[in-house]
Structure prediction request, 328 residues.
Amino acid sequence: MKQTPIDLEQPPERAGIIVPWTHVGERPSDDRLSESAGLVEALGCELEFLRAENVRKPTPGFLLSGGLLERLEADVKSHNCSMVIMDASLTPIQQRNLENRLGVKVIDRTGLILEIFGLRARTKEGTLQVELARLLYERSRLVRTWTHLERQRGGRGFLGGPGETQLEADKRMIDRAVGRLRRDLEDVQRTRRVQRQGRKRRDSLIIALVGYTNAGKSTLFNRLTGADVMAKDMPFATLDTTIRKLDLPNIGEASLIDTVGFISDLPTHLVDSFRATLEEALSADLLIHVRDRSSDSDDDQKRDVLKVLDQLSELTKTPLPPMVEVWN
Prediction:
């Protein structure tokens, strides 16, 4: 009797997105909503609902107020969602309370970007950077909630205070892991510096493509170099840095670098974690800023890219190279 093969593939998670806003100037544009939908697609989830909500008075416990929270709870049940994404920053308390109330996984914008980075990382360097960013994020989410997890009492005598708590132990464990990852990434940075020095010795011009995520950098990279870097119409299709040789008229050989795309509200620790990769851009002789001029948010995206570059320049104490724009 022939047996039917077992399908081991899990069905994609069903997710809903809420984009909260308070003031009129913060109301999300259609481009921002499309970007949010694209991030969920990049994560491999099925988008069940996407809604911008005017949160007039954000609450410290849930962010959303009563009526909005009840509507979200009904949507989660009716769409059978297993995940809710708040396209904003959530405090650890808000995230925990929402998960308890909704009965599903809840992540904020930073958590969503980290999930995508975790899927996209292919090289050892990329994996190290994603893991470092994830640990730094998790450390910031640790909250003091259970006093019964105190492992021992400190001090002597009847009035000895509480000793090491689970929270402190978790922080110490994460700090040790962060230290190991930083040392591993320092080795990567040293290797990259040696490679950069080799390119400099060959008098090879170094050109780096930078820009907002999904602006067309990888497509341009493939056209110029004949490479086959993944170029898809979705955010963060490229995460690992790729370098290819390029012959330029009247100049000769150059090295073209494809970098990870930037995005609005990119957390500081993400920039810090991906410093080894992003330093490739600062070491270039020329930056090519690829802009998607068809986007209604093009000017905002330009500001976001320049903000991250300035942030990186300040972090590394390295001046920005000359920059030209290429309009897609």
Notes: The longest helix spans residues 166-201. Residues 144-163 have pLDDT under 50 and may be disordered. The radius of gyration is 23 Å. Strands lie at 14-21, 46-54, 83-86, 105-108, 205-211, 242-248, 252-258, 286-291, 323-327.
